[in-house]
Amino acid sequence: MNVPDATAEEVAADVLMTVHGKLGAFRFGGRAKMTTWIFEIAKNRAIDYHRSQKHEFEELDASLASTEQHAEAEHGTCANNEMVWIRTRLAELSEQDQQILKWRALDFPFGQIAKWVDMSEGAVRVRHKRALDKLKHQAKVAATQGELTNE
């Protein structure tokens, strides 16, 4: 579930402690197998980890920065102006919408994102579409006003 290795060990230890502490609450012979019960606890702990993290947006790393510099050298300041415009428009979105766009850009499924942000999958899909539509509309307006050279 995309938990860093060092933290995953800590989360796994927490899962084992939780299983040990709640073993008396497990219904043997019930509807769920013990392995399913344990995996559900592990999944919930991983989700809790992601929810507890403040996902700060980082500046471009060196490889991406060099790509941006290459684009600027090839296309002049036009590419740089567009990157500034995009960063500014993204910053205007809510933090949650920024998160959803970031996780979708990294190909996380809507269902997983929904668990992380404690929303229904449909609500996450709607938030994602509306955020993209807002950015597209702003790009069209900026292009017609001459702020951007391309959409």
Question: What key phrases describe this protein's structure?
Answer:
mainly alpha; Arc Repressor Mutant, subunit A; elongated
Write a short abstract of this structure.
The chain is mainly alpha-helical. It contains seven helices and no strands.
Question: What does the model show?
Answer:
This protein is mainly α and 151 residues long. It folds into three domains: 5-52, no CATH class; 57-92, no CATH class; 93-144, Arc Repressor Mutant, subunit A (Orthogonal Bundle), CATH 1.10.10. Helix content is 73%, strand content 0%. It has seven helices and no strands. α1 packs across α2, α5 packs across α7 and α6 (110-117) packs across α7 (121-144). Mean pLDDT is 79; it is low at 56-61.
- The dominant shape is elongated
Helix content: over 70%
Write down the Rg.
Answer: 21 Å
Please give the alpha-carbon distance between the first and last residues: 35 Å
- Quantity of strands, as a count: 0
CATH architecture of the largest domain: Orthogonal Bundle
